[in-house]
Amino acid sequence: MEQEITAIQPQLTQHFAKLINEKRLAHAYLLSGASGTGKLSLAVWIAQGIFCNQRNADGTPCLKCSECRRIAANEHPDVVRIIPEGRSIKVDQVRYLKSEFSKSGLEGNRKVFIIQDVEKMTTSAANSLLKFIEEPNGSITAFLLSSHANQILPTIVSRCQVVEMASLNRETQLKRLMDAGIDKAVASVLVNLNADLDELVALGTDEQFQKLLAEVVNWMKAILADDWRAFVYIQTRLMPLVDERPAQERLLELMVMICRDLILLRYHQDAEVAFITEKKMLAQAAAQIPASQLTKGVELVMNCWNQLAVNVSYQNVLEGLTLRLCRCYHKR
Ligand SMILES: [Zn+2]
Questions:
Q1: Residue 31, pLDDT above cutoff 50
Q2: From 56, 170, 328, 331, which residue has the greatest number of CB atoms within 10 Å?
Q3: Crossing angle for the helix pair 123-134 and 91-102, nearest 10 degrees?
Q4: Fold of 206-329
Q5: Alpha carbon 273 to its chain's center
Q6: Where are the domains of the chain?
Q7: How far is CA 88 from CA 94, 105, 308, in A?
Q8: Can you spell out the DSSP letters for 42-82?
């Protein structure tokens, strides 16, 4: 993964390579971004850039020398990583970090530490860390990593340079999901969901979610065929798969997605759709429906969120939606 970071975060790696070259690294960085955006890889890569024996002229690490390899393997005495023990990062772990760094004479002066999930630091650990960051010792560079930067103590944030990781583009995300063993058809839907990579991988490997995808397709096929069974499918096929609110919200997201696919295909036969295996069927159906009606269809699904907010039963909302979509697409 370290080799990939220049592809995932081209601007940031370029930026940090320049800082390394010009010896202008700050004392503490907060790398903030969703899981999968390469926070740890970036921190490791910068550490390699700092210690590399054969650094390239542009400041990037060679990734081959002994220093680079030891850092990648987490076996470098001057690059220390801290991960939460259970649910929190405790003061003992910060003490450990300090004691590691106080061992003088190890591999020169520079020290780098990387703290993962920094929002899990207890207050006392954070206070201890703050004192450490503020010691006027120019040779320490700290990387604090977090997917939930809004949960970090403001006193910590204010002492760091905050670096927002760019979110993954669609291709990278697709590739990651497929590398995790997820089928392309499922991955294409997942990249359209509003969630970070870990959640998407969990969903993609969940059998219930895969069933849900298949049933959303069946539901839409019935609507497009003006088949009354679409209404029945809500109770018999979809409701059993969404027993809890998060799953219910996912189902609505999937419904918006498949309605949006219809619009995309109405305008471009080769549009990048979510439901790739149904592309041909959806394109043929979309060609028969006026674009204005397809747009209205998406609005009808979006309206369901408002209805749910005022406590209408979930099943009633979906049944009402099904009837309205049938009328909308078949102009009754
Ligand atoms: Zn190297």
A1: yes
A2: 328
A3: 30
A4: Zinc Finger, Delta Prime; domain 3 (1.20.272)
A5: 20
A6: 2-167, 206-329
A7: 12, 31, 36
A8: HHHHHHHHHH-SS--TTS---S-SHHHHHHHTT--TTEEEE
Residue, of 55 and 97, whose pLDDT is higher: 55
Q: How far is the CA of 8 from the centre of ligand 1 (A)?
A: 20
pLDDT bucket at 1, cuts 50 / 70 / 90: very low
The mean of the pLDDT values for the chain is 89
Q: What is the pLDDT of residues 38-95, one digit of tens each?
A: 999 999 999 999 999 999 999 999 999 999 999 999 999 889 898 888 788 888 888 8
What is the whole-number distance in angstroms between the Cα of residue 52 and the centre of ligand 1?
A: 4
Q: How far is the CA of 259 from the centre of ligand 1 (A)?
A: 50
Residue 236 has pLDDT above 80, yes or no: yes
Strands 140-146 vs 161-164: parallel, antiparallel or unpaired: unpaired
38 C-alpha to ligand 1 centroid (Å): 20
Give the chain's end-to-end CA distance (angstroms, integer): 54
Three-class DSSP labels, 229-255: HHHHHHHHHHHHHCCCHHHHHHHHHHH
Query: For residue range 118-150, what is the model confidence (pLDDT) as tens digits?
Result: 988 888 888 888 777 776 555 788 999 998 888
The Cα diameter of the chain in Å comes to 82
The alpha carbon of 179 and the centre of ligand 1 are apart by a number of angstroms equal to 27
Report whether CATH 3.40.50.300 matches the domain 2-167: yes
Residue pointed to by tokens 């870990």 = 198
